[in-house]
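**Archive record**
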Amino acid sequence: MDARLNYFASPTAGKALKYFMSAGKALKESSLPATTQELVALRVSQINGCAVCIDMHTKEAAAAGETAVRLALVAAWREATVFTEAERAALELAEQGTRVADAADGVGDEVWTRASQHYDEEQLTALVILISFMNTVNRLNIITQQPAGTYEVGQFH
């Protein structure tokens, strides 16, 4: 499969994505735990069906020491016993924040309260921006049918 657009060859994409990707770098440097970031990025990408991001975040998480069992169970985190309460709260927030169109009420107060019990304001800020960031990246890749499977760990760092 060939991508509809080559972002790397486009001057417009080069300018815009330079700034956009710097936001991703700022998130990596935040106090939100790296494991939580990868799990959330993976879950958002699974919901949206973004193969490129699933490929990337599965490989990045594995390289950082995440287990194959936890990675395999992200899609079924509610029934899995391998996630901490904090990770479960982040995954729940990620799901509701991604499925905004599916839920007339958006992110519920109970979900927000659970997340705020595990993360301070700075971490919650990073989590909300990460969820939004991943939804945007997913759409950039899905609309242009970016192919997946060839990502190498650290490729975009």
User: Anything to note?
Assistant: The first helix runs from residue 11 to 28. The mean pLDDT is 94.
